[in-house]
């Protein structure tokens, strides 16, 4: 398996493929909500490939001059339980540190909070709802 990080067209297409499978088809998130105005040509995506098959992804959003926000972390069903989500997060954090960011902020569904806590993230919000789903924000210092 190989992890690639970049904003090339093939990276965005690979990430969209995974997100279509996981969020739209598996989780029934509306297409227009999943693919939003943050999917721009300059957006950087992390993608794990099994040969030529994209199997896990994450998207990097720049919040401000100090903060990155990993978003759309997803792994194809057949590849779960292989720590690929953690691999994606570590690559995004490394990208942030390399580019001078000192803070990472995640908006997570309540069911994913434990995953982020295992990676060193701390809860920094009360429960709030996005599309009727309970969520929390978590943060982590990158330095």
Fold and architecture overview:
The protein has about 140 residues and is an alpha+beta fold. The chain is about 30% helix and about 35% strand. It has 4 helices and 8 strands; from the N terminus they run βααβββαβαβββ. Strands 1, 2, 3, 4, 5, 6, 7 and 8 form an 8-stranded mixed β-sheet that branches. The longest helix has 18 residues, at about 10-25. The chain is globular. The mean pLDDT is about 95.
Distance between the termini: 28 Å
Sheet with most strands:
8 strands, mixed
Number of helices: 4
How large, in whole angstroms, is the Cα Rg? 14 Å
What is the average of the pLDDT values? 94
Parts with pLDDT < 50 across at least 5 consecutive residues: none
Number of strands: 8
Structural class: alpha+beta
Helix content: 25-40%
Question: What can be said about this structure in brief?
Answer:
This protein is an alpha+beta fold.
List the helices and strands and how they pair.
Layout: E1 2-6, H1 9-26, H2 31-34, E2 44-50, E3 53-62, E4 67-75, H3 84-98, E5 103-109, H4 113-118, E6 122-123, E7 128-130, E8 133-141
Parallel strand pairs: 4-5
Antiparallel strand pairs: 1-2, 2-3, 3-4, 5-8, 6-8, 7-8
Keyphrases for this structure?
143 residues; alpha+beta; eight-stranded mixed sheet; 8 strands; 36% strand; globular
């Amino acid at each position: 398996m190989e992890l690639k990080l970049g904003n090339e067209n093939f990276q965005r297409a690979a990430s969209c493929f995974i997100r279509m499978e996981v969020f739209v088809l598996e989780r029934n998130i509306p297409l227009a909500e999943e693919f939003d105005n943050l999917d721009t040509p300059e957006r950087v995506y992390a993608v794990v490939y099994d040969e030529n098959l994209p199997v896990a992804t994450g998207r990097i959003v720049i919040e401000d001059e100090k903060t990155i926000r990993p978003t759309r972390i997803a792994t194809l069903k057949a590849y779960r339980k292989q720590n690929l989500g953690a691999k994606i997060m570590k690559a995004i954090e490394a990208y942030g540190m390399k580019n001078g960011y000192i803070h990472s902020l995640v908006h997570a569904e309540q069911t994913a909070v434990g995953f982020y806590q295992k990676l060193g993230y701390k809860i920094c919000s009360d429960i709030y709802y996005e599309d009727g789903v309970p969520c929390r924000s978590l943060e982590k210092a990158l330095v």
